[in-house]
Structures are given as structure tokens and as C-alpha cells.
Design goal:
The structure is a homotrimer of 343-residue chains. Chain A has 343 residues and is α+β, with helices and mostly antiparallel strands. Chain A contains 7 helices and 12 strands. In chain A, strands 1, 2, 3, 4, 5, 6, 7, 8, 9, 10, 11 and 12 form a 12-stranded antiparallel beta sheet that branches. In chain A, a hairpin with a 5-residue loop joins strand 10 and strand 11. In chain A, helix 1 runs antiparallel to helix 5. The longest helix of chain A is centred in the N-terminal third of the chain and has 16 residues. Chain A is globular, with a radius of gyration of 20 Å. Chains A and C meet through strand 2, helix 1 and helix 5 of A and helix 1, helix 2, helix 4, strand 8 and helix 5 of C.
């Protein structure tokens, strides 16, 4: 058998290191496509001059291009037989990525726990994205539920990693040279700075995007994510193609420009849940809540901790969870992240 | 309220200067996408060698990439609450734009006139697109009908700008170095030169393109145009997404290659009307009429003034207006422009 | 008449050389789009570092980008009035193409044969793709059935070219510097090397892609292929847009990564048939058969001759032809090519 049928739960052991295949050199082409696929407008990722004015050598590639590229490489090894993508933690963007850089991904298995039904289990991996110099540009923990291939395989010893609920803001990686002292709020698109956001404040991002099959497939392919369920309409009984959760993250983040135009760079991902599946035809909207704030050592640079919630169609305002803690059926995504914003 | 609800009629005053947000560095990615989204084939915008042979340093980005990029930036400030996009005038392409250049836009309000119903008014703006050196690459006047936000706001003094009906061809900006002395008609695709076009001549461009939702949305997003009506299927009662008028301009201009392959560069936009809305599923066709001709000071370079008309589906041949001057219901676009063509 | 109505059978004469229009400078934009449109993952076309490790100066553009670009230019001159695309032979990739290169195409008519019905005929052309240095990067023979424009035109003397059934593997062009001595199988995605493939072996590539209208149109436009039937839904009585055969080639080749991840570069196209038409909504799958193997003079580089078959929807396993030699109705493509693979 020459084709990859993916790994099953019993194929993972704690400490195992998986070097994912197919490194990728990124260019202005990926940036242009990202901006065609998502209504992304954060100025630091749009203009070399704006980025240079913030102390960077050029405009980096959008942080979510980096996330999707690193994530996509892990799919054939981690989630081809995944039943569910359960969560993210300890995501940290460590270095900006520029056109011309080449990314590859490596994951280490840091936890396993067989489910009581004996048919599947949860696998925790810490994934690192590296550039052509071997520098880590991004790392994050992700856990997925994976089917067992051989139901008779013995249950491994349960190892559940200790994960921070929130990335400590004092440990956020500051891109080399970053400063917001000469920040041009006019060119950025809004006047609201660090001081204008209050913890607990909620922002309805107002705009909506109706999702098309070809867009989510083009996006997902661009990250070389190969999960069948996104591309093959014969794969599900209902003939629907499930949309890659990262597509919803990118739509929601781009929509959040309207109200958070100065939350320029994603610094860390504290956690995230794909609460409900998204399908073509859904109209995606987004709202944010300010969860925390912290100053940084970089001149003029603050950090805001944001909850970014993507909802579909006619969700009630600021829809999230019901009293029992279950996500509202119209909630697609609940993402918790730190972003850099001018003081 | 942190989100942008757009400006209303009473927010505009003559003389006001609006610096639009989100500068944009363009690359070969935008060019490739433009050529994937439109059947664009003018050789000067396709090949560095062809452009160099015409005296330019490299192949510029398509002139309509420049137009859409500059226009897109104005949408959040000018047309978010627009009821209608009424017209264009005095559009002039002043400098070619190359991969690596960064564009931003600035508009000055040059006219206002409240409608007699007291609920809306017309706003005229002159928009300039600037590159990273502060050079103006494009300017044009556009007027839109905008809703009043506060119906009690007093009507401003009416100012209607004096606008040229046609850009004087002796004032067309000639790109530095442009000459058509060594022009290769074989590589350009057609033999017809300046002398072969007669004033009054009409050309049916023959080909048609059936428009898809994801294509017009990707195009419109690429220009960072944020008007809801293009992206959100829940925005109109009929569930349709209105197609950005510029998408139709680009389709029609690209189709006009067949018959006008040597009308290489758009030099000026004299005027334009989006006569009827375009929706996904429409098949767009185009025809042109030669309105005028003029030689230029550049070696071998002539200018033709063209009417470019986009029509849909089964429009009658050379459909335009009825006897009362009303546009035929199948006409989508009526654009009047100057193009450079070899003598 | 200024528009191109294409050539008819009687317009072709053996020995005629046609220089096709609209040269094209390719960039990282075309590469990014290729990877958004197809699930392409061969590492040598994805990563500069991987390609440099194989002795190349950088990652070339995917060989099928080159094929489509060269092919697209021939459409207005060769196949605008084609009734059918009958076959390919003697396709040879002679030099890698890199971002920044400019391609143009030239064809020579090498055979003509009027059909017995007197209404059409077969035309054979040998097409060459050239870069900006005038070097041939690709050549291939293609034959098409073309309508007569004037049924009274006399039948030309029949000339049927002698074509090799297979490109002799000892004549495959080895890209300058290519060697697979330090080849990283882990980064390439699979362990299977030259020695692991047996002649006669069949591989089911497992994955499927459901095709969308906007994807095939964007791809086909990107190659500046202008055949109406791909873009204009009013062109056929059934309202369907016929998908460019090259789109199916690229889908199938990309799917073949799963099982043939190390068949990195296409060296030659021995032959090919578009067995049945493909339409949006079809789910395309692929399988391959190893037809032959040959070592090469390049260090560590072998060549495998592969049959690549694209099928749709619920085709039976390894579907190809029935006993009478007729293609199964679910077969879309039958392509015979040589690829370079590490020993």
C-alpha cells in the first residue's frame, strides 16, 4: 500500500517526534490570495511602508498565513483520521515570516488518553513551525480525537499535559524592532488605541461574509491541507463539504478589523474551539470581547487579550453559550488570543 | 461605538480632505489573480520583455488593478452609505505602477447638493492615488448619492463642480519612456493599429463570461472594498449579492482584447455609468465604439477614445439606450476612455 | 472584422509556422494560485530549499504551469474552431522555468488530413514554448479535429507525421544540476523510491476533488486560454461549461502525490487522451499504473513511466477501457508520462 491512510490512535506515543512533509516557500502570491479570500485589512500586513514605520524590515505575511501553513502540514500525520479537533493552547507567534521564507512543521506527541469506549482516543501534540534558518516562527498545542485502527491495541498509559489556560503576556515574543511610536492611526483606519479598550467591552463587527465552496477549498488547498472532508462532496452522506475551521478563523479575524483595526498582530493563541461546523452558504459574522490588557517592553506597544467569536446567519447578538455551558448552535468559533496594539 | 458606520450626506463639506486608510503594497500576486479573475491579455501587462520593448522598465500592473486598489480604499469613507454610484469624470492615469509599489488614496470633496426630498444628497469627490514616493499615479472624480443620517441637518450650500466632458487628449500623461516604434504586432495578438480604427466604428467583442459569486467576491476583496452588499447574501431582500461595478469594468475591458488587442494602456477615463446591476449567473459580453482619435508626442503612440459597453445575456447587438435616452435593461456598463495604441 | 474568428482546417498547411501572441512573465503569484487551485504537494515545486538540495538554483514553477501557459497561447490559433482535442505525443520538458521567466509559444504545422465527410480535418502541430532567452523549455505535438470554414476548399495532400509512441528515456532532458543524492524522503512525504515501484503496479490515489465552476475558470483564464466553451454558459444547449482538459490533468497529477510523492518532475508526455468531458460538480479521482522504468545519467535520478488515469464519481476501481478498447464512461483522462524519481 503506497498511499497514506493516516495514523490511528495506537500509532501515537508520548515523546514521539513527527517531521511533517512538504516544506513551503511563501511569496507575494500567498499574500494576494489571502487578501482575495478574506476581507483582511490590518495595515501592517498590507503595506511595506506601514510596517517599516513600525520598525519591521517589510510587511510580514499575515500571521494566519503562517498558522495555516504550519497547521496544514500536520494534517496528513495528525488529523487524517481525526473525529474531532478538540482545542488549541499555548500558541505563540515567535518571529514574523516574510515573502521568500520557507516553512516546515514538526510535532511532538505530548499526551494520549484512550476514550472509555475503547474505539478512539485523544492525542495532544505540540507543533512547531520553522523557517529556512531553523528558527521557530510559531508553536502551539492542539488536541484531537483520533479513531483506533486496531480496536485490540492496548490502551496506552494516560498522559495529560499541563497546559496554561492563558499565555502569560510578559512572555509574548516581540518581533525584532517592533515599536508603535510613529504609528499612523489615519492610515491604520481607526483611532481606538490600547487605552480605549476596556476589559469586558464587547464589539459587534457588523459585517458578514457568505461563504462559497470554491473559496474555502482554494484557501484550504493553499495551505496544503489534505483532509478529504473539505474537498470531496461524496465523503459525507449529506453531500456537504465541511469547511476547514481555520477558514472561519481567518474570516472572523478579518471581519474584526471593523472595531479592532489597530489590533495589528496576533501574538499568541490562548485557546480555541470550533463550536459548530460551517458549510458553504452560511453567512459568517463576528464579535469580540476584551478579556485582558497588558503593556509590553516594546516602545508604544500594548497587548490586548480578545475573545473572537464567529457566528452564522441570524445568531442573536453576542451569542456564545447557554446556561449549561453549551455553545449556541449558531456559534462557529470561540477563539482566545493576544494581539499587539498601539498604546 | 468602535465600528465604522460610514459618513452620511451631512458629514461632507466642500474642501474637506479625507486620507483613506490601509495602504497596500502590490506584488506579482495581485497580477496573477487579476489574470485568473479576468480574461486579460494585453501584452504590455503580461510580459516584461514586451513592456521593455515599449520603453518601460518592466511590465506595469494592469491599469485597472491600480484603479480598483485606489477606489477600494475610498469605500469606507465615501460610499458605505451610498444609494447609488452616479458617475466618473476626469480620470487620468499619471504614472505606471509596478510590483513592489505601495498605493494609498486621498479624496477631496469638491461638490455637494442636497436632493429635493431632503433625505439624501449628491457628493462629488476628486480622489488621488499615490505611490510610496508621494507621486500621484491616478486621479478621478466620482459622484455618489448618499443618505442623510440626520434628516434635520440643514442643507449645505449647493456646489456643483465644473467637470470636463472629455479629458483633453493633448493633456494625457505619457508614461516615461513609452514608445511604440519597435512594437511587435504578432506578439500583441492583432495587426490593427491606430490608422485602422475609424471614428464611429463599432466592434462586437464576441466572447462572453458567465459570472460566479466567488470570483466577484475574491476580486472585490482583493481591492479591500468593504461594501456589504457585495459579500453578504442576507443584505438584500432577494438574497442576491450585488456585483461591484468595477468587476464589470474589468471583464468588459478584458473581453475587448478581441478586436482591440493593441489598445494597450488606459490613459484616461472620461466618464462612466453602471447602467444596470449585475448578478452572479449573468453572462457578460462587450462591444466598443471608436469615439475619437488623437496623436501624441510619444514616438509611435496614438490615442483612441473608446466607448466600452458591457451587456448581459441576450442583449441585442450594440445595445445601448432607447429613444428616450434610457439605458437598455441589458446594458450593465457604459464607459468612455482614452487608450494608447501604436500608430 | 477586427475580432479573431480563429483558423479553419483549410487555413493550415504543412510547414507553416505560427508565432502565438501574448508572452507571459510568470511570478510567485502563478505558483500560489496553482497551489490554491490544485492539491499540489510535490516538494521540489513547493520549497526553494528542497529544490536547492536537489541541485537546482531554486524551486521551479510546477511543470504543468509551464505546460498550461504554453498551451493556452496556442488556443486562439489552433483550437478555437476545434471539434475535438485528439491527442498529444513527444512532449518533452527541456528546461525548468522559474519565477520571473517570460514564456511564449510557437507552433509548426506538421500534418493535415481532411476527414472523409469533407467538413473537417485533423491538424497536427508541434508546439514549442520558449523563455526570454529564446531557449525551448517545452515542446509537444498535439493534434486536433478542426472544422472547415469553406466547405468548397480543396482537400490538402494528406501528411501524417511519424510520431514516437513513447519518448525514449535515454533522451529525457535532465535539468542542469539535478541530482537526488541528498534527497530528503521525510520532507518529500513518502519513503517509496525507484526500486519500490514495479512495472505493472497500480496505485489508487484515494483522494477526490469535487470541481467548481469558478475554480476551473480561474485556472483556465490564468493560462490565457480563451476557448469560449469553458467560460460562457450560453454556449452549449445544456448550459454547461466544458472544463479545460488541462484542469483535469492538473487535478489528477496533484492527487497522485498520495502514492507517488517522489515522482517529483514530469520529464516527458508520451501521450494523452481526454476520454470524456468533465463538468462542475464532478468529483475527480485518480489512479496510476507503472508502465516502465529507466535509470538516467543524473546522480541518484531514475525515471518512471506512468499512466495517470482520472475518473469521476463512482467509477469502478482502476476503470479504463472495455473489451472493445472504448474508454469507460467515467474515465476523464488517460495520460502517459515520464517522471524523475530518486533511485
Amino acid at each position: 500500500m503506497k498511499t497514506n491512510s493516516g495514523r490511528f490512535f495506537e500509532d501515537y506515543t508520548v515523546g514521539q517526534v513527527i517531521e511533517h512533509a512538504v516544506p513551503r516557500t511563501l511569496s507575494g502570491g500567498e499574500r494576494a490570495l489571502y487578501h482575495a479570500l478574506y476581507p483582511a485589512r490590518h495595515a501592517l500586513y498590507s503595506s511595506d511602508e506601514f510596517a517599516e514605520n513600525c520598525g519591521l524590515v517589510a510587511s510580514p505575511l499575515d500571521d494566519l498565513i503562517v498558522f495555516h501553513t504550519v497547521f496544514g502540514k500536520t494534517v496528513p500525520d495528525i488529523s487524517l483520521n481525526a473525529v474531532a479537533n478538540l482545542g488549541y493552547a499555548e500558541g505563540r507567534f515567535l518571529k514574523p515570516v516574510f515573502a521568500g521564507d520557507t516553512l516546515r512543521s514538526v510535532s511532538e506527541v505530548i499526551g494520549v488518553k484512550q476514550n472509555s469506549n475503547g474505539k478512539s482516543g485523544v492525542v495532544w501534540v505540540r507543533t512547531k513551525g520553522l523557517n529556512q534558518h531553523g528558527e521557530i516562527v510559531l508553536e502551539y498545542v492542539r488536541w484531537v480525537m483520533v479513531r483506533k485502527g486496531n480496536l485490540d491495541a492496548p490502551a496506552p498509559e494516560t498522559v495529560i499535559p499541563q497546559l496554561s489556560e492563558v499565555v502569560d503576556p510578559s512572555t509574548l515574543a516581540l518581533p525584532e524592532g517592533l515599536e508603535f511610536l510613529r504609528y499612523d492611526f489615519g492610515l491604520a483606519g481607526e483611532e481606538h488605541r490600547y487605552a480605549n479598550y476596556k476589559i469586558g467591552e464587547k464589539i459587534d463587527h457588523v459585517d458578514g461574509v457568505t461563504v462559497e465552496e470554491s473559496e474555502h477549498m482554494m484557501a484550504t488547498r493553499l495551505w496544503q491541507n489534505t483532509a478529504k472532508v473539505h474537498f470531496d462532496a461524496t465523503n459525507r452522506a449529506d453531500g456537504k463539504r465541511l469547511i476547514y475551521g481555520g477558514h472561519v478563523i481567518s474570516i472572523a479575524r478579518a471581519l474584526s478589523f471593523n472595531g479592532l483595526a489597530n489590533a495589528q498582530m496576533i501574538a499568541a493563541i490562548n485557546g480555541g474551539s470550533h463550536a459548530n461546523p460551517c458549510f458553504a452558504g452560511n453567512t459568517v459574522r463576528a464579535w469580540s470581547e476584551v478579556l485582558d490588557k497588558s503593556e509590553t517592553r516594546a516602545p508604544g506597544v500594548g497587548a490586548v487579550r480578545l475573545r473572537l467569536v464567529a457566528v452564522k446567519d441570524g445568531a442573536p447578538e453576542f451569542a456564545l453559550k447557554d446556561d449549561s455551558g453549551k455553545y449556541h448552535e449558531d456559534v462557529l468559533l470561540d477563539l482566545d488570543y493576544w494581539a499587539f496594539i498601539p498604546l
